Amino acid sequence: MDSSDQAASRDACMKEINDLFHEMGRARGKTTRSAWMELQLTLPQFKMLVVVSQAESSAIGCIAEQLGVGEPTASYLVERLVQSRLVERTEDPSDRRKAMIRLTAEGRALLDKLIGSRDWLNDRLRDLDTEDLAALRRGLGAIVALLNTAKPI
């Protein structure tokens, strides 16, 4: 195989991998579509829920910074989510003046419905044989390493 054939084969392989990732996303989306259709949150409230889910608990100032909004706006969004019982506000043990925000069980359940359970893929991977599972792990490890070293777009 000459170099132009190898390049074409490589390009075809990369396209197929990309298509497979998109197909995997569509398959996962089928399990979450109805939850998205029933969602009663605004986009800023949803973003807040995602940010809060990234840490065990977060201060409002930290959340505001991650969302790129002021603390008053973040406080308002938190209040709306507290009223919906999706997050809870507690005192910071080291500074009682500071409120800490974390997901409630209802908030975690909603995110699992919207994004998919953390076990969704794991449950399906059980059906792969050991050789395919090892090849997938190696390939995904290479992709993650590449993405972690890539410059932001």
CATH architecture title of the largest domain: Orthogonal Bundle
Quaternary structure type:
single chain
CATH superfamily of the largest domain: Winged helix-like DNA-binding domain superfamily/Winged helix DNA-binding domain
Helicity range = 55-70%
The structure class reads mainly alpha
Give structural notes.
This protein is mainly alpha-helical. It has 3 domains: 38 residues; 78 residues, Arc Repressor Mutant, subunit A (Orthogonal Bundle); 35 residues. Helix content is 68%, strand content 11%. It is built from 7 helices and 3 strands; from the N terminus they run ααβααββααα. It has a 3-stranded antiparallel beta sheet. A hairpin with a 2-residue loop joins strand 2 and strand 3. Helix 1 crosses helix 5, helix 2 packs across helix 4 and helix 3 packs across helix 4. The model has no long low-confidence stretch (mean pLDDT 87).
In short:
The chain is mostly helical. The chain has helices at 3-37, 43-53, 60-67, 71-83, 105-115, 120-125, 130-149; strands at 58-59, 87-92, 95-103.
